[in-house]
Amino acid sequence: MKRVFTALAMAGLLTASLSACVQSGRTDQSRATGDKVACPVEVDESLTGTVRLGYQDIPNGDLVVKDAGLLETCLPKATITWSKFASGATVIQAFGSNSLDLGLLGSADAARALSAPLNIGMKAVWIHDVIGAAESLVVKDAAITTVAGLRGKKIAVPFASTSHYSLLAALTATGIEREVTLVNMQPDAIAAAWRGGDIDAAFVWEPTLSELLRNGHVVTTAADTAKAGKPTYDLEGARADFVTANPRVLEAWTAAQNWAINLINSSPDSAATHIAAQLGVPVTDVRKQLSEYGYLDAGTQAGAAYLGGQLGTDLESAADFLLSQGEIQGVAAPQAYAGSVYANAAATVSAK
């Protein structure tokens, strides 16, 4: 990353209000809280505009970059605004209202954004993580040790989520998708229903997952369904017009994320310290959570198995799933999903 980008490229794209983001979560005025680190690429002082980023409390490179103040260091004259979002659905709303430039969302939410009726002009520019055991199917009855054992049972899951996608894949592979009762619940409601004995099982993520595991056990995970050909991801989405006008901004952002991924893979304790500071939880808890995701560097992501090709197919598959659940009105043409994946920045960063 020895090239620089100009503020002129940002004109007209980086001036919108953050009001929609703030309604979805909160604007983080403090931004970085951890020790500053050196920029992994050449510092660019030419940019004086505002870059609006949406993050979620998920243990991945986004929180490492945020805590280290890496973008603020690399782009010292730019205004980097971080806004916290509760879900991918609210990130989609912010894209639709033109109040966010880049934001984290799950692959199921990305597929929804690209499909009818939303048809949002969005690009998937980075894979924050491949979801593994961080999303799991937990059962209360100790006698049930397989997915097949859930026949006739009531299973809670947030509908249209990555967990829902993984659950349906597991049930279909076992052939019992019509022999269980699925209940649409958000994670906090799942925890309450579990305590009240109203559900038999749930496919969910942290921190609800750990609460259920106090008196339950895992029978399958998103890692298992990924191995069976149904992977799920946490992605970084960006408005398509922003990507078109600001390719070098994407390169700088990607270089920072790639640094964070390399830190997670090579020095997980250091990465966990950054993430724990942002989440307000013990470092040991973060270290456990990091082991439940897969983290891919820029070179791997640029390849045909991910941003370089397969991700578009995976998004189309997720859209087919959403349509089957009545969560979207229609699946777009295959090229809409293939064309939504932007591998240029990852390829450029990996080549440097």
What does this structure look like?
There is one protein chain. The strands form 2 sheets. The protein has a 7-stranded mixed β-sheet, with helices on both faces. A 5-stranded mixed β-sheet has the order 8-7-9-6-10, with helices on both faces. The chain has 352 residues and is an alpha/beta fold. Mean pLDDT is 88; it is low at 1-26. It has helices spanning 19-24, 61-68, 70-74, 88-96, 107-114, 162-174, 187-196, 208-212, 222-227, 240-245, 247-266, 268-279, 283-290, 298-301, 310-324, 334-338, 344-351, and strands at 25-28, 50-55, 79-85, 102-106, 122-131, 135-139, 154-157, 181-184, 201-205, 217-221, 233-239, 293-294. The protein contains 17 helices and 12 strands. Helix 2 packs across helix 12 (268-279), helix 5 crosses helix 15 (310-324) and helix 11 crosses helix 12 (268-279). Strand 7, helix 6 and strand 8 form a beta-alpha-beta unit. The longest helix is centred in the last third of the chain and has 20 residues, at 247-266. The radius of gyration is 20 Å and the shape is globular. It folds into 2 domains: 7-131 and 232-351, D-Maltodextrin-Binding Protein, domain 2, CATH 3.40.190; 135-227, D-Maltodextrin-Binding Protein, domain 2 (3-Layer(aba) Sandwich).
